[in-house]
Design brief:
Length: 507
């Protein structure tokens, strides 16, 4: 590649960031880093009606959490600043005007009512949704249908207008998508999209082309849902005389519902009980919060690794990749054309893998807040040891509290029925005499505790299998946790004795 690779993620700040959006960010990032290029974050906020307060900051926070930091952005600046389209408003008019002057676009003065009437009048069974296009534009109020003097007059009177692209008739426009290959569009099926709105703001269609050009974008990755807009963009690149600079496009496959039936939506997540957004998103209008992968207890590295594999693989069957390794191995040729089914169980599998391979001291600051939230008093070095003992049993970060609470507080609920099922006097006598002899254990560490335990067992003619489960339930509250003698060592002699005595009194 001769030109320096420059890619962009260009979100509209309209709400929470869907995992499909994060995957687009990731593929941008991987491609840019693989080619030693630059990754730009550009905020496409020209649609004031869809603008949502806080959504831009949220996107920035998600990028940070995922560790996918752009080289240029509104926050960071860069040689092509500003990176927020609303701050570039003054730039677009000139290009819209150029298109009008060259006959590729026109002024349209139609009011909302007139547009509505057109749709009602032209609606037929075969055309239930009439568009503003080469068939209808002559019947509307625009600079193609009205006499030239009237147009001048309307403009002089400052009549509000929009600028629309004039889609040519009977043409085929084509481009080669990096993932899908050659794609053709019939211009008769595309409407005369608005390029510049009455408030002087460009629409997405004009702004995306102008900014990709001005920002020297070489490759543009976006979701498959943008494919229908491609013919408009292709023609704009051509009409503005920039065809040779057009980025190579890759339209990424959709992320599908777990059953493969259609695009995964936030509602599917609510319905099936898994997150779809990267981080918690609180809708400022409704105050409703949608849970994110972060708050559900995913590690960002696991989330990113899982997303990389939703639509791409390296061909070897390898599933665990560090970000550096992904950068090295990623190639667009191996991105699938077909949609990728989202599988929450698989997402959890990735997180479990990452928890196992993350050092205990790295997990400590991630796990600690969950204990603090439940007001469990903790000591860092003790918690770090607990993390090492239970991480094998933890899939999501909150699991650490569930699996580890008993190391810090005496269990409130004891699963007595599972002890009572096989309880008898012999076992009670064993526990009583073991308790009485605890002071005889030299150093309170698990091998010495176990040795002493075995000795008392022999004296009572019992087998380990008879009493290990009751001991576990007494110390933990239920039938889970790591080695029971390690638990005893960790909670200490006094607490061990206290828990056993308490439970014995209830049996
Ligand atoms: N602003 C568009 C969006 O919200 C970006 C599409 C593109 O990347 O061209 O997804």
């Amino acid at each position: 590649m001769s030109n320096k690779v420059r890619v962009r993620f260009a979100p509209s700040p309209t709400g929470g960031l869907h995992l499909g959006g994060v995957r687009t960010i990731l593929y941008n990032y991987l491609f840019a880093h693989h080619h030693g290029g630059e990754f730009v974050l550009r905020i496409e906020d020209t649609d004031q009606n869809r603008y949502v307060e806080g959504a831009e900051q949220y996107i920035v926070d998600c990028l940070k959490w995922c560790g996918l930091i752009p080289d240029e952005s509104p926050e960071k600046g860069g040689p092509y600043a500003p990176y927020r389209q609303s701050e570039r408003k003054h730039l677009y008019y000139e290009y819209a005007q150029k298109l009008v002057d060259a006959g590729h676009a026109y002024y349209a003065f139609d009011t909302t009512n007139e547009l509505e009437n057109m749709r009602n009048q032209l609606r037929t069974d075969t055309n239930p949704n009439p568009q503003y296009d080469s068939n209808t534009r002559q019947q509307m109020r625009n600079s193609l249908s009205l006499p030239a003097e009237e147009v001048v007059d309307l403009l002089e009177k400052k009549t509000p207008y929009v600028i629309r692209i004039k889609m040519p008739q009977n043409q085929t426009v084509s481009f080669t998508d990096m993932i899908r290959g050659e794609i053709h569009f019939d211009t008769n099926l595309v409407d005369d999209k608005v390029l510049l709105k009455a408030d002087g703001m460009p629409t997405y269609h004009l702004a995306v082309v102008v900014d990709d050009y001005l920002m020297k974008i070489t490759h543009a990755f976006r979701g498959e849902e943008w494919l229908p807009s491609a013919p408009v963009h292709l023609l704009l690149w051509e009409y503005l005389g920039w065809k040779d600079n057009m980025p190579q496009w890759a339209h990424l496959p959709l992320i599908l519902k777990p059953d493969g039936n259609g695009k995964l939506s936030k509602r599917d997540g609510d319905r099936l009980g898994f997150p779809v957004f990267a981080m918690d998103w609180k809708d400022p209008k409704t105050n409703d919060t949608t849970t994110g992968f972060k708050e559900r207890g995913f590690l960002p590295e696991a989330f990113v690794n899982m997303l990389a594999l939703l639509g791409w693989n390296d061909g070897t069957g390898q599933e665990i990749f560090s970000l550096d390794e992904l950068v090295q191995k990623f190639s667009i040729d191996r991105v699938h054309k077909g949609g990728a089914k989202f599988d929450y169980e698989k997402a959890k599998w990735f997180n479990h893998q990452y928890i196992q391979h993350t050092a205990d001291d790295k997990l400590l600051p991630l796990v600690k807040p969950y204990f603090e939230k439940e007001q469990i008093p903790i000591d860092d070095s003790y918690l770090q040891k607990v993390i090492g003992l239970i991480k094998e049993r933890c899939t999501l970060l909150p699991d650490f509290v569930q699996q580890g609470r008993f190391f810090f507080v005496t269990p409130q609920h004891i699963d007595l029925p599972s002890i009572q099922a096989k309880w008898d006097e012999k076992k009670r006598q064993f526990f009583e005499s073991w308790l009485a002899g605890l002071d005889g254990i030299g150093s309170w560490e698990h091998t010495a505790i176990e040795q002493h335990f075995n000795g008392v067992l022999d004296q009572h003619g019992l087998k380990k299998g008879d009493v290990l489960l009751p001991l576990r339930v007494m110390l933990v509250g239920g039938k889970f946790g790591p080695g029971v003698f390690i638990i005893a060592e960790m909670i200490g002699k006094a607490e061990t004795a206290l828990r056993i005595t308490n439970v014995l009194s209830q049996l």
